[in-house]
Amino acid sequence: MDAGDPFDETTGFRVFVALDGSLASLAALRRAVGEARLRDAHLVAVRVLSGSGALRDLDGCEEDLQRARDTVWTAFEEALGQVPEDLDISAMALRGGAGATLVDLADRADDLIVLGVGDPRPLRRWRARVTARHCVAHAGCPVLAVPLPHHLRALSRTRLRPRDVDRLLPD
User: Fold this and answer.
1) Which of 4, 42, 122, 166 is the most exposed place for a label (fewest CB within 10 A)?
2) Model confidence pLDDT, tens digit, residues 59-76
3) What is the pTM of this model?
4) Is residue 42 within 8 Å of 88, Cβ to Cβ?
5) Which CATH superfamily is domain 14-161 in?
């Protein structure tokens, strides 16, 4: 799945998607896959853990970062049923603030940041707004905020597992 280095200067377009385990982030992942296909871009799926230091894989236990990278691959299975084989995909787990980390990673004008927004739960909604505002204000590339589909807002309040919802998300 990890194909090439997305930070190599010879790599073309890149699409970054932030994943936090929410239904909104799974909707964003589905949109990011579509955008990566349209742009023939390298897809970088990022899980940002709270903590200090936005430098890749520094600060903290490597086991925690590996578990977080594993959740990124699990998100593909939950959102799409499998990891797309037609895309170059990298999974990253980093420590830091989500907005600042994404802006640091997406440092080219032709990059794209994709974020899920619209979770009805207050804490997740607040975090998503903070992240989205930071990215819009500081990114040197386009930022795409993907709302949670209306029919999934009510489901996100239930105990339904995200992997059971993939059939409800539009392709």
Assistant:
1) 122
2) 457 788 888 888 899 999
3) 0.77
4) yes
5) HUPs (3.40.50.620)
- The four Cα atoms 99, 6, 83, 1 give a dihedral, to 10 degrees, of -140
Q: Which of 74, 75, 94, 90 is nearest to 1 (CA)?
A: 90
In angstroms, the CA 34 to CA 37 distance is 5
Question: CB–CB of 35/41 below 8 Å?
Answer: yes
Taking only Cα atoms into account, the Rg of the chain, rounded to an integer number of angstroms, comes to: 15
In angstroms, rounded to a whole number, what is the distance separating the alpha carbons of residues 112 and 163? 26
Write the DSSP string, 18-38: E--SSHHHHHHHHHHHHHHHH
Three-state DSSP class for residue 51: coil
Burial (Cβ within 10 Å: 0-12, 13-18, ≥19) of residue 109: exposed
Contacts of 132 (CB under 8 A, 6+ apart): 99, 115, 117, 143, 145
Could you give the CA distance from residue 50 to residue 159 in angstroms, rounded to a whole number?
24
